[in-house]
Amino acid sequence: MTEQDGSGEEHRLRLRHLRLADYADVRHIMDQVYPDLGGAWTRKQFAAQINRFAEGQICIEDNGRVVAGAISMVVDYDRFGDRHKYNEITGNGYLTNHDPNGDVLYGVDIFVDPEYRGMRLGRRLYDARKELCRSLNLRAIVAGGRMPGYREHAAEMKPEEYIDLVKRRELYDPILSFQLANDFHVRRVITAYLPEDQQSRAYATLLQWDNIFYESERTPLIGGRKSMVRVGTVQWQMRRVTNFEDLMTNIEFFVDAMAGYNCDFILFPELFNAPLLAQFNQEDPAEAMRGLAQYTGEITDAMSRMAVSYNINIIAGSMPVYDDNALYNVAYLCRRDGTIDNHYKLHATPDERFYWGVQGGDALKAFDTDVGKIGILVCYDVEFPEACRLLADQGMQILFVPFWTDTKNAYLRVRRCAQARAIENECYVAITGSVGNLPRVENIEIQYAQAAVFSPSDFAFPHDGIVSESTPNTEMTLVVDLDMDKLKQLRAEGSVQNAKDRRLDLYRVHWLED
Q1: Residue 416 pLDDT grade (very low, low, confident, very high; cuts 50, 70, 90)
Q2: How far apart, in whole angstroms, are the C-alpha atoms of residue 60 and residue 62?
Q3: CA atoms of 238 and 435, how far apart (whole Å)
Q4: Closest CA to 421 of 413, 411, 432, 433
Q5: Residue numbers annotated as active site
């Protein structure tokens, strides 16, 4: 990497591991940075650090000279706990407590040549430490942080008050402010951590950065969590069928095709079985829909068998269910292990209520699957943000929205709301509907749809939050891969963090009990 400072001098910065031959440069920097704390380590201490854990000793050189460095070690943190002292845990600088089988990367020191301050070299070293922590599968980085700015406020406030003001940016501390900006959080205040540190009045902050990709147990070779989930959607053509077998042939065709692409999920639209409505009296739409409900159990059973035989989880759009003199619109999840779950559409549209007498369901839950937690909301449901928020609170990562819309403005309501739910809840959202027409089928004659998969809007995702979308009003499929690790990273380190930053002290969403 080549940079220039304001004087026109050319820099050639390179990140690498420290070597014993770098000691003179390191000593020069530490003597300048720590004149009141004893200056640099001895050559023996420096050699011990490299010999015990070479991977953890990192530096940045400029034109061959070390200008910044970071010293780290791995520890079994339970051996020391939160009340440890600096010399105790670092073995007086010799890293005698380095444990290759430990669970935490301990930050011993970071130092930058005063001439290079303002070039954000410390941030590069912190990023390198984070990369090391992830590569070693350690659960966290922990460090004791000095508070040199506290000296000016020690007479008027306690350390905890000072830390709170620094967090709120009411005060600036040259070390603590930098650490907080690098995603560390303060676990507690340590007393007598470094007794000779008079600037901090011997107080220190115990800081931690959590590795969100840490796996406490080795991932099994078979049945482990998938980081990449493949979703297929069917933009379903409404066409007349002569009988039940014709409909099932069309359904199985798409299940077979999506399974051939190794999809984990296939999503069908709302009321995808509507072609069978043509068999019933169109002068009474409510009675026709109750007649269609007679097929729901048989279709669900058949799709459950397909889920098992084709090894794919099927979201069976939605179908009418007539139970105890009440008509519902119900989506089914047919898992590839043979189990079945359902979601009763919560919000019946005015049209559904008027023409068919559909009632809303009264339950909502996220569903466990072999590749993570999902949610299902049917069409109009997604226009109510509270429902999706409740699913997100249950750990939902992918929301599936089967819909039926007849006009573009109706479709855009569903689409815009689905995109908002992806951003608000830091999840993926897949939507699909039906296209074509069903002449002489009352209240469901025409369709408008465009299948799509949406993501949150941040740097790791498409800039417009659209993972993929189909051609409008054409029978087709959409197949997309969803990176679940990106969701985890977004929730911990995103530019904005909607879930984390919700003001639960002011408002929250609750499901009312009976």
Answers
A1: very high
A2: 7
A3: 6
A4: 413
A5: 270, 345, 379
